[in-house]
Amino acid sequence: MNPVEYLGFAGGALEIAIGIPQARQVLRLGHGKGISLAAWILMYLMFCSWGFYGIRIDSISTIISNFATLIVLASVLIVLIGNIYKAFLFLIFLTLIDGFLILKLPEFLVSLFLIASVFPWLLS
Q: Using CB atoms within 10 A as the burial measure, which of 33, 36, 106, 110 is most buried?
């Protein structure tokens, strides 16, 4: 395995660690009062995009770390949306659309999209 992959795994561990306290709180309380649904959806899309980009570039650390983070984000989104079936269908829809775009668009468009997902203030 490429030594850079180890750095990817370290970054992935940080990604997961950042979301776990919020996820635990939301799951413990059973509600997400005061938490922005839109922000969590954008984070879900960002990590989903990077996970599919990992597939595109064949980077195991990028794939594993980003899709593991999606599990944490999905758990919060299910609570925020409130209906497990509606949330599940919504997340599947987002994942399929995002994956199709990341895997099929030209590289320069994917790069722009990934940069925009990390720095959303660039769009405003």
A: 110
- Full DSSP string of 7-55: HHHHHHHHHHHHHHHHHHHHHHHT--TT--HHHHHHHHHHHHHHHHHHH
* Contact assessment for residue 38 and residue 6, using Cβ atoms and an 8 Å cutoff: no
76 vs 31: CA distance, rounded Å? 9
pTM of the model: 0.83
CA end-to-end span of the chain: 39
Q: What does the alpha-carbon distance between residue 71 and residue 13 come to, in Å, rounded to a whole number? A: 13
CA separation for the pair 86, 108 (Å, rounded) = 34
Contact, 103 vs 57, CB < 8 A?
A: no
**Residues 84, 26, 31: CA angle, nearest 5 degrees:** 65
